[in-house]
Amino acid sequence: MTDFLKGYRQLEHEKRREYQYETQCPFCSMQCKMNLHEEKTVHRSRYNATPLKGDPVSDGKLCAKGVYAHAHALHSSRLRTPLLRVGETLTPVTWEKAYEWLRKKMGSVQVQHGNDAVGVYGSGALTNEKSYLLGKFARVALQTKHIDYNGRFCMSAAAGAANQAFGIDRGMTHPLEDIPLAECIILAGTNVAECQPTMMPYFRKAKAQGCKMIVIDPRETSTTKIADLHLKVKPGMDAALANGLLKVIVEEDYVDHTFLQKSVDGAPELLAHIRSIDLEEVACLTGVAVEQIREAARMYGKANTGMVFTARGVEQHASGVMNVRNFINLVLLTGKIGKVGCGYGAITGQGNGQGGREHGQKADQLPGYRLIENPQDREHIAQVWGVEESSIPGKGVSAYEMFELMDKREIRGLIVLGSNPVVSNPNASLIESALQKLDFLVVIDYLMSETAALADLVLPGSTYLEEDGTMTNLEGRVILRKAIKELPDGARSDIKILSEIAAMLGKGKYFTYRSTEQIFEELRKATKGGVADYSGITYKRIKQNKGLFWPCTSTSQSGTPRLFTNGRFYHPNGKARVIAVPHQFPKEQINDDYPLTLTTGRMMMHYQTGVQTRLTPELNKVSEPYLEIHPHTAEKIGLVDKGKARVRSRRGEIILTVKMTAGIREDTVFVPFHWGGESCINRLTLPQLDPQCRMPEFKACAVRVAPLHQEKEKETEIKKVEVLV
Ligand SMILES: Nc1nc2c(c(=O)[nH]1)N[C@H]1C(S)=C(S)[C@@H](COP(=O)(O)OP(=O)(O)OC[C@H]3O[C@@H](n4cnc5c(=O)[nH]c(N)nc54)[C@H](O)[C@@H]3O)O[C@H]1N2
Ligand SMILES: Nc1nc2c(c(=O)[nH]1)N[C@H]1C(S)=C(S)[C@@H](COP(=O)(O)OP(=O)(O)OC[C@H]3O[C@@H](n4cnc5c(=O)[nH]c(N)nc54)[C@H](O)[C@@H]3O)O[C@H]1N2
Ligand code: SF4
Ligand SMILES: [Mo]
What we know:
Layout: E1 5-11, E2 16-24, E3 33-40, E4 45-51, H1 64-67, H2 69-73, E5 83-86, E6 89-92, H3 95-113, E7 118-122, H4 128-142, E8 147-149, H5 156-166, E9 184-188, H6 192-195, H7 200-208, E10 212-216, E11 229-231, H8 238-251, H9 257-263, E12 264-265, H10 267-275, H11 279-286, H12 290-302, E13 306-310, H13 312-315, H14 320-333, E14 343-346, E15 365-366, E16 370-371, H15 375-385, H16 399-407, E17 413-417, H17 421-424, H18 428-436, E18 440-445, H19 450-453, E19 457-460, E20 469-472, E21 477-481, H20 494-504, H21 516-527, H22 539-545, E22 548-549, E23 576-577, E24 596-601, E25 626-629, H23 631-637, E26 644-648, E27 653-660, E28 668-672, E29 686-689, E30 696-697, E31 701-707, H24 708-724
Helix pairs in contact: 4-20, 4-21, 5-14, 8-11, 8-12, 8-14, 16-18
Bound molecules: ligand MGD (2 copies), iron/sulfur cluster (SF4) and molybdenum atom (MO).
């Protein structure tokens, strides 16, 4: 432990020891570094976290989630023993017994129903090493094609769009430090102030230097406070809004013709499409006035430099890929990319939202962003893994579709690592019933999540404090995080657990790592020559450089903080691609029965399904979900502030506390998704998937809202109508 023991002081007279460790926040994609201080007396330890000065990402700042991150990892409810379901109850068992049970279950399912009858479900919270290992575990140890992960719900639309447009998918095309160099910034469907709080100072600095900020969101948020112009778009109508912006860009000629000619394919088709756009129609469809559309387009068009950022507001739709492509059209048409102060960024979400999507957790993917159906990619990885190319399975299905296969009993066993799908999937009721149909559900977690509570076997894993590993942050910067604590008695590291299960299945020789660095060394080889090339990155170089940006193709290369600066994109002909994007619409339209649009998202103090943050009193001040609704809408329905409302979609119903807020559109309601069980908003959301990337429509579905007492009376009548339909 000497490596990370930075400071140690013994205060003899007080029988007190103080330690200081350097670690990294496990939560969002910023990946802020911090110091964790421990004050140890004979009976107990006290901890507190402070920002790390000199961290190039956070610039020496932390948000409240970072300050209290250690609380859940050190919580007394950490799982410390395997739990096996006996009857209705999860009962403590030894690791030997747990593995023996799993070996038998796995064997019988795979022998009777084939290797693909077992699925693996991963996470963008995992380190690169674990993501890589999980992909290898599925393909080599289980030999199943069914692996996917929660990043399907997070990054897939932006990833699909960036791959199509640029030939590469790295969230931001430039480092954070470039943000203040932009003269105009568009933030579309992103609530940075609550979701990546330490990114805000970069935007504030830009604004202080005269940058014009445009924020596109159906609600006022902490982020819209910095907007010079807030476009309150109707949920699901971003592609149409971008068409409106493009119309003005072309009409008033803010187009960079030289750049288009030299570096972009598809411009004539896009320009023809834009000419056909009617601004009045766009205004009507999006709820944003023509004058505001013009003003925004002019701000961005006239600026010499500019950036566009998107996040889940634009991406989590069944038209997510096309929505994002239309924002990228804006960037490419104006030539605001590959130059200082310019660029595009899909703001990644989870701690390793970026790396987690590069190294083989996706159904169709091998490490280094290689494709599982590409013969050369398969050959390369087979060599690195030391297996026959033919033994690597083909492509599986996406995250939500895996649950549909469980519902149909095609997938009969599932291993979950680092996710809580029963709360985070759309149409959560189906997920719960699909999980109950499984022959076995294994959850590797360090806390008891709603999904773990449904498992047949829960294996106690490791937190960020206990495992070395690299994380790739929203910039594409690969950062090393060192373990600073021993595992609690009884828990095991996730890596050890996967390796032990592999050994139990007779595949131990492929999983003989003595350190995470050894896994990273293998990952380097696996990614060499791939799009996400990490081959030039080593633990030592990361430490020396405070992180390295991929692609990094050799140890003598300094990484790539800025993409496309040589004017070349990653398609074979070196050009980027634009495409004509027709207006896109929410898949479930509102009507008289379901007259409001529900959109969902996040709040500052909670993280994801809340398993971690609900344990921390300082973060759990809002301890139940709420319905943001405009006072005019609420009054019409007869709701009172802080009263109870019944919210119903075609898939389910939940009861929520009313939070009247004049900042939201009158036709829209918003609910955060941080709670499970009866309070789970995903019981209502729509599992319609994007045809290209399989992202669900989390951000728009049709609902009806009523005061709790009234709706009950109407219920029978509505049910009758639905039966008739
Ligand atoms: N505090 C906190 N921080 C987090 C997380 C967390 O759970 N809590 N999660 C992390 C993860 S995994 C992710 S993916 C990121 C997510 O980060 P964000 O994408 O910024 O977060 P969301 O709240 O999901 O959505 C952003 C905004 O989109 C708006 N929106 C909804 N519908 C639409 C629409 O149709 N169009 C437009 N333009 N906007 C719309 C919402 O009102 C919301 O303000 O945050 C990361 N950081
Ligand atoms: N309605 C709606 N639904 C959404 C979204 C939305 O905006 N609206 N957003 C979607 C998005 S963007 C995302 S990313 C997903 C997130 O959805 P989930 O991944 O289901 O949510 P988390 O709460 O992050 O679940 C992580 C679980 O893994 C555990 N865990 C975390 N790290 C580790 C680790 O290193 N090892 C082990 N063993 N366990 C670990 C935690 O304790 C927790 O139980 O939700 C999606 N669902
Ligand atoms: S901004 Fe993100 S990474 Fe930084 S402290 Fe907050 S939650 Fe953690
Ligand atoms: Mo996410």
